[in-house]
Amino acid sequence: MADLSVRFAGLSLRNPFLLASGVWGESGDSLAGAWAAGAGGVITKSIGAVPRAGYPNPTIETYERWGLLNAMGLPNPGIGEYPREIEVAQRAGALVIGSVFAGDATEFARLARRMAATGVIAIELNLSCPHAEGFGTEVGSEPEDVEKIVRAVVAEVRVPVIAKITPNTSDPAGLASAAEAGGAAAVSAINTVRALAIDVHLRRPVLAHGLGGLSGAAIKPIGLACIWQIYEAVSIPIIGIGGIGSGQDALEYAMAGARAVEVGTAVAFDGISVFARLPRELAGLLDELGFARFEDAVGAAHTRV
Amino acid sequence: MADLSVRFAGLSLRNPFLLASGVWGESGDSLAGAWAAGAGGVITKSIGAVPRAGYPNPTIETYERWGLLNAMGLPNPGIGEYPREIEVAQRAGALVIGSVFAGDATEFARLARRMAATGVIAIELNLSCPHAEGFGTEVGSEPEDVEKIVRAVVAEVRVPVIAKITPNTSDPAGLASAAEAGGAAAVSAINTVRALAIDVHLRRPVLAHGLGGLSGAAIKPIGLACIWQIYEAVSIPIIGIGGIGSGQDALEYAMAGARAVEVGTAVAFDGISVFARLPRELAGLLDELGFARFEDAVGAAHTRV
Amino acid sequence: MVRYRRPVRTIVRVTDRVQETPSTVTLRFPYAPPALPGQFVMVWFPGDDELPMSLSYTDGPSKGITVKVMGETSRHVQSVAPGTQVGIRGPYGNRFDLSPRRILVVAGGSGAAVLAPAAEAARARGAEVTVALGATRASELLFRDRFRAMGARVEVATDDGSEGHAGFVTTVAESELARGEFEAVWTCGPEVMMRKVIAAAEPLGVPVHCSMERHMKCAIGMCDACALGPFHVCTDGPVFPAERLKGVPDFGRFHRDSSGRRVPF
Amino acid sequence: MVRYRRPVRTIVRVTDRVQETPSTVTLRFPYAPPALPGQFVMVWFPGDDELPMSLSYTDGPSKGITVKVMGETSRHVQSVAPGTQVGIRGPYGNRFDLSPRRILVVAGGSGAAVLAPAAEAARARGAEVTVALGATRASELLFRDRFRAMGARVEVATDDGSEGHAGFVTTVAESELARGEFEAVWTCGPEVMMRKVIAAAEPLGVPVHCSMERHMKCAIGMCDACALGPFHVCTDGPVFPAERLKGVPDFGRFHRDSSGRRVPF
Ligand SMILES: Cc1cc2nc3c(=O)[nH]c(=O)nc-3n(C[C@H](O)[C@H](O)[C@H](O)COP(=O)(O)OP(=O)(O)OC[C@H]3O[C@@H](n4cnc5c(N)ncnc54)[C@H](O)[C@@H]3O)c2cc1C
Ligand SMILES: Cc1cc2nc3c(=O)[nH]c(=O)nc-3n(C[C@H](O)[C@H](O)[C@H](O)COP(=O)(O)OP(=O)(O)OC[C@H]3O[C@@H](n4cnc5c(N)ncnc54)[C@H](O)[C@@H]3O)c2cc1C
Ligand SMILES: Cc1cc2nc3c(=O)[nH]c(=O)nc-3n(C[C@H](O)[C@H](O)[C@H](O)COP(=O)(O)O)c2cc1C
Ligand SMILES: Cc1cc2nc3c(=O)[nH]c(=O)nc-3n(C[C@H](O)[C@H](O)[C@H](O)COP(=O)(O)O)c2cc1C
Ligand code: FES
Ligand code: FES
Fold first, then answer.
1. What is the rounded distance in angstroms from the CA atom of residue A14 to the CA atom of residue D95?
2. Can A226 be counted among the known catalytic residues?
């Protein structure tokens, strides 16, 4: 049986499948549930400085089994209340990574410090939410901003800092390089892809917020391309995200350059038991292909090109 | 029966469904075939200065019915030979729009002049091919470049110039505004989305070129978002592209702001007869929803938000 | 197990609007997907919110919801006229187990909305149904006549004593439990009420099923808005056997607001 | 009409390699999707090109292709050993109509690759099959023994006269047509050859079906690489009745290279 454990950026995980931020991540019991189901680690909902209700419903729209559009609007209880939820998950044994979002470097640093105090094993910076209201675009779409934010956070906390990169850019590798320059221990990619649904009967966007972010199978090829380009640009480890719903999907990400992966939308389509199925499928596939360890597959597709 | 004819940018089309560039567009007979099937107009393969073989196979990968990945590598016979093909299509009565691609403004202008000489009703500038080798990114990913190229072409030709915008950007509306500033008569969006497929058995990318571009149903929500944002930013007409395979898809694009649409991947999945079905479906839907003319639906989803 | 339910929205037109009580209205609309008593749909009132609503009519192609004024959106819903377009997705969630032969139904507030079709289905299978129906006053007794018409015995409680027992519906439920030999209790209403019902039924060994409500956004088990202890009301519920709720400290005490913050009831 | 065929690639391992002639090799591999004689697959030789190849074995789960050295990739293919991984998608395209009872098969070059399984299927249905088989020399006569084994009458032509008629296979075909009463002619080979076959059969009223080749990239009727007049060889062909080809000026005269440029044969 292939060894699924992964070590990178000072982390040591039983398998490479992390619960993606924003899914099952608002309550500590749910984080614990994802861990109990088999996740290698769980990432919290992105937490801000103050409680935030998010956008009104409708907040989601789905496309058959291949995609999901959402504009939740970053609802979260705020960093004041949230540590209680993390504690619940930690008491259940879960390895928790704390995700935070903010509008500028100073606020990011302040939030990250408070998040780090909860004992999370790492912090993921949500630099990329495509539907958070910034100054027109996303907080993480300029390399200078990314570098500045990462640098400010790294100066403030001891745990590894993971910069989550947006796909809504002409140059994901440039953003990842900026994160590396800022001192990030790892980068993760991708967040959702900016998208929209229109209802022709009602002559209006379906989501209350209008624009949203696409996730699920449809964005797997987009995520893979980002990982591929980032892998060629940075030497820090990469976490792959986007449309992962099978062991093979995860292995594709690994071969493109990912050392771990996050799983979001598959939870909606297949239930939380997806975290039991994914490691099983991955181990079976690695055995079939002759890999003794998952980590041996990382970047494997780059060597021949 | 709802009126499907559209007029914009000096063009007058029997229906809003254009054959997208790169599909059935290498030979004059095929362009004529798409016209005969019912397209409102046909756009040529993107033509360059000299013949270009494109990338070796594999050049495509498909995902069920929801997506297609390609890296053709802009094969084309070159502007020297291609006018003969356009002539064949024109003799069959087709309204032909000429697509051109180049590496800089001067070459774009030179090509566009030669293309205009064939009697095409408009010129579409392919600023956005995600897999053409430029200087790292795409030729059309910086607003300044877009404006410069469009300006150079507009100075050179009398026919309307359509700037085709890439989705691989943080700010599609900014690119469209740049095209408008440069004098474009219209913008079209989107080209394919940068993407990748990995084969885990072979440990390599599937496409010979590695990176490719995603098209088909999966990118419809992404295209709609681009059209939405562009509509709010420019006053020139917009042509919607991306995953259109039904009359309803086209109407969603219209309500998001498109005056016409282009259809590519649906030709592979449904055959060229899709150009007979689409106008029929659209007319039926418009009747059902009480629109007398397709043009009345343009931008309809913006009025309530 | 394929959990996926096609949650694509269907835009339908409201065909009928029935004023059930001064604060409650039923909307009927054509929606073909089959549904079972206990399940809910997400109802989009365009321009307003999208809300989880139990199906108060589950049979056949004409479905129905019954909406009580609670806040802004539900107040607007009261004036929705036939012909209005609404978006429906679902049905979601689980259903009542219809196998018990003697059932006590305890309904408070808008709880009768989900309990009426369940009671109807149980009656159709020949079960004996007793309903303890509570409201603030007589005019607010939801579906009293519908329960009677299906052949259920209806015992009423009103806060102001304008009909039936003056006081809590739980008092009525307790005395019914004391008298009858029920195989099951179904309840929906305020959680304090449901807790009392459980407290009364438990010593008698009568299993209780509660239809729960939590703030909902996705309804497909993803966003975590409806988290209730280790459960998600949208996919693990809305109907829960009382034993599953016992270990959940929030039950009857806290719910979560739109931001995910725990707030006391 | 749903034209869509799942063109997802399957990676398979070559099980057998048979050197058919000095310049031609057959590769067998497991590939379950059903196929009919006339159809082709896209075969990916990783690291090399992906090429359209007729299925020379269409029956059952073990399919086969027969590759002749033409250029760089097909030369590399000659040394593909059992165990090598290749990617297969398809089958694509149409098939031969197997209903005629007396069939003349005219094969030049690697044309026998697609004609052999078709002739086999026709024989299995009881048709009489005559094969006019041409090659540069005796050792290059592809599938001569396979045609004989299926019970077809085989008439041979070689350029160098090392076996059978010395000269064009079309001469053999002409004399067969003059003698026999054929219901159909099936042909695959150089287009000049096929044009001559049509010219001989037409006056006699015998319908001819040609298996055509054009440069292919997508194989799903999209990229236009395989345009042949108003047709796409990948989706409208590869088998065309001669009447359809008559109005196509390029037939026998021009093909298109990888850039889409028309180049004379
Ligand atoms: C499974 C389920 C079934 C339900 N069935 C019915 C029913 O049949 N009839 C009925 O009248 N009501 C039902 N509700 C309650 C209903 O969804 C709304 O909560 C209620 O109508 C108040 O909405 P509002 O926007 O008017 O109130 P608001 O002013 O927004 O708030 C009033 C209360 O409603 C809650 N609420 C608001 N939005 C939501 C939401 N998206 N999800 C859950 N709660 C929300 C708030 O937390 C608050 O406690 C059901 C709820 C759930 C979860
Ligand atoms: C429907 C179809 C069925 C075929 N069946 C067979 C078969 O059973 N056996 C066989 O040996 N050959 C077959 N071919 C031809 C085969 O696909 C190749 O053209 C041939 O093997 C030469 O490839 P190459 O790369 O070695 O040659 P190159 O050096 O690349 O070129 C030699 C010739 O092959 C042509 N060619 C190259 N690539 C392609 C391509 N992607 N598509 C079409 N032509 C190409 C070129 O135009 C040129 O004329 C078939 C072609 C088609 C279209
Ligand atoms: C409902 C939903 C909520 C999300 N919320 C967050 C969030 O709060 N922070 C964040 O960084 N990403 C968020 N994401 C993005 C996911 O973490 C992930 O990057 C994306 O969905 C792609 O992965 P998937 O295809 O597996 O879902 C959210 C995604 C979804 C679908
Ligand atoms: C096989 C293929 C080739 C393409 N070639 C071109 C091209 O030459 N020039 C161009 O501007 N766009 C090209 N495109 C992009 C399409 O014109 C279109 O923008 C894109 O495919 C999205 O539309 P669709 O989803 O309807 O296919 C190509 C797309 C495909 C699938
Ligand atoms: S409403 Fe989203 S998880 Fe239940
Ligand atoms: S090979 Fe692409 S259209 Fe035929």
1. 53
2. no
CA quadruple C228, C234, C235, C239: dihedral, nearest 10: 80
Q: How far is the CA of A203 from the centre of ligand 5 (A)?
A: 27
What residues does ligand 6 touch, defined as CB less than 6 Å away? D 216-219, 221-226, 232, 234
Judge whether C182 and C102 are in contact, CB under 8 Å. Answer: yes
Tokens of residue B223, six digits:
């295209």
Map tokens 């989305």 to a residue.
B193
The residues spanned by each domain of chain A are: 6-304
Fold category of B6-304 in CATH = TIM Barrel (3.20.20)
**A-chain residues within 8 Å CB-CB of B248?**
200
Ramachandran category for residue C60: left, alpha or beta (phi over 0 → left; psi -120 to 50 → alpha): left
B20 lines ligand 4 (CB under 6 A): yes
What residues in C contact A272, CB-CB < 8 Å? 221
> Which of helix, strand or coil describes residue B131?
coil
In degrees, rounded to 5, the angle at the alpha carbon of residue B256 between the alpha carbons of residues B254 and B262 is: 50
Indicate the residue of A29, A70, A206 with minimum beta-carbon distance to C227. A29
**pLDDT values of chain A reduced to their tens digit, one per residue, 305 residues:** 999 999 999 999 999 999 999 999 999 999 999 999 999 999 999 999 999 999 999 999 988 889 999 999 999 999 999 999 999 999 999 999 999 999 899 999 999 999 999 999 999 999 975 434 445 567 888 999 999 999 999 999 999 999 999 999 999 999 999 999 999 999 999 999 999 999 999 999 999 999 999 999 999 999 999 999 999 999 999 999 999 999 999 999 999 999 999 999 999 999 999 999 999 999 999 999 999 999 999 999 998 64
- DSSP category for residue C74: H
Q: Give me the residue spans of the domains in chain D.
A: 8-92, 102-264
Tell me, yes or no, whether chains C and D touch by having 3 or more C-beta pairs under 8 A.
no
Q: How far is the CA of D21 from the centre of ligand 2 (A)?
A: 18
Under an 8 A CB cutoff, do A205 and B301 touch? yes
Q: Say whether A270 and C3 touch across the interface (CB within 8 A).
A: yes
Alpha helical stretches, state H, A62-142:
83-91, 105-116
Cα D172 to Cα A60, B10, B289: the distances in Å are 70, 62, 67
Contacts of residue D201, Cβ cutoff 8 Å, sequence gap at least 6: D104, D177, D182, D185, D207, D208, D242
Q: How far apart are CA D125 and CA D123, in angstroms?
A: 5
Q: Do chains C and A touch (3 or more CB pairs under 8 A)?
A: yes
First to last CA, chain D: 36
CB A48 within 8 A of CB A101: yes
Q: Does D179 touch chain B (CB under 8 A)?
A: no
A260, C197, D107, D177, D246 from D201: Cα distances, Å: 65, 92, 15, 7, 13
Q: Residue for token digits 């050295």?
A: D69
Mutate to test the interface with A, among C222, C226, C231 (most CBs of A within 10 A): C222
Residue B53 Cα, ligand 6 centroid: separation in angstroms? 14
Compare CB distances from B76 to D46, D49, D260 and report the shortest one's residue: D260
The overall pTM is greater than 0.90? yes
Beta strands in A177-303 (DSSP E): 186-189, 193-195, 198-199, 204-205, 212-215, 238-241, 260-263
Does the structural domain C102-264 have CATH classification 3.90.1580.10?
Answer: no
CATH fourth-level superfamily of D8-92: Translation factors (2.40.30.10)
Distance A250 CA to ligand 4 centre (A): 28
Tell me which chain A residues have a C-beta less than 8 angstroms from the C-beta of B203.
255, 297, 300-301, 303-304
CA distance D122 to D96: 10
Give strand ranges (E) for B57-95: 60-63, 67-70
